[in-house]
Specification:
Helices cover 53% and strands 19% of the residues. By secondary structure, the protein is of the alpha+beta class.
């Protein structure tokens, strides 16, 4: 049984039935503590999903963590910031009307949320690294255009499946 402290308990309770169905677990709460009961692997996944919901991600984004290819990662802005003007740094990360955050999300195919001094990233495992590097560069003071160029240069090439995977599994 896993125990998680939740700041946004009503959000978790609202999605309780869907979480239990999709993650194969049972959820109960006592105060702001949420208890998860299920298989170890399911408990671990549920803990990550609930942490993402608690951080501020939408349900549709948080539930993607259940997929094998998707991950949830947190960055602490204070670890990478030289100066301690965190409000200015958060402003650089969000951009005017959220444009920088949207562009980063589009280029990395990750969902990005900023809360206090933390950045949450949900996305495909192979894209998380690029998103982290881009965000760290922005925190350290790189120009947005240079970060966008880096992301465009490091886009993953799609893997073309020639139909050999299914045949390989049957052998």
């Amino acid at each position: 049984m896993e125990k998680i402290f939740c700041e946004k308990l009503p959000r978790i309770l609202k999605a309780k039935k869907m979480l239990e169905e999709k993650l194969n677990i049972k959820i109960s709460n006592k105060g702001k503590d949420v208890y998860i009961k299920g298989k170890a692997k399911d408990e671990y996944t549920a803990k990550r999903v609930i942490d993402a919901l608690n951080f501020g991600f939408d349900f549709k984004d948080a539930i993607l963590i259940k997929e094998e290819d998707y991950e949830f990662d947190l960055l602490n802005i204070k670890e990478y910031a030289k100066n301690h003007n965190l409000e200015r740094i958060r402003g650089r990360l969000i951009g005017k009307n959220g444009k920088t955050k949207k562009t980063l999300s589009h280029l990395t195919k990750c969902t990005i949320e900023i809360k206090d001094n933390f950045i949450g990233i949900i996305g495909p495992a192979e894209q998380i690294y690029n998103a982290q590097q881009a965000l760290i560069s922005l925190i350290k003071g790189s120009k947005q255009s240079n970060v966008y160029a880096y992301l465009e240069k490091h886009q993953l090439k799609p893997i073309w499946d020639l139909g050999l995977k299914d045949n390989y599994k049957n052998l």
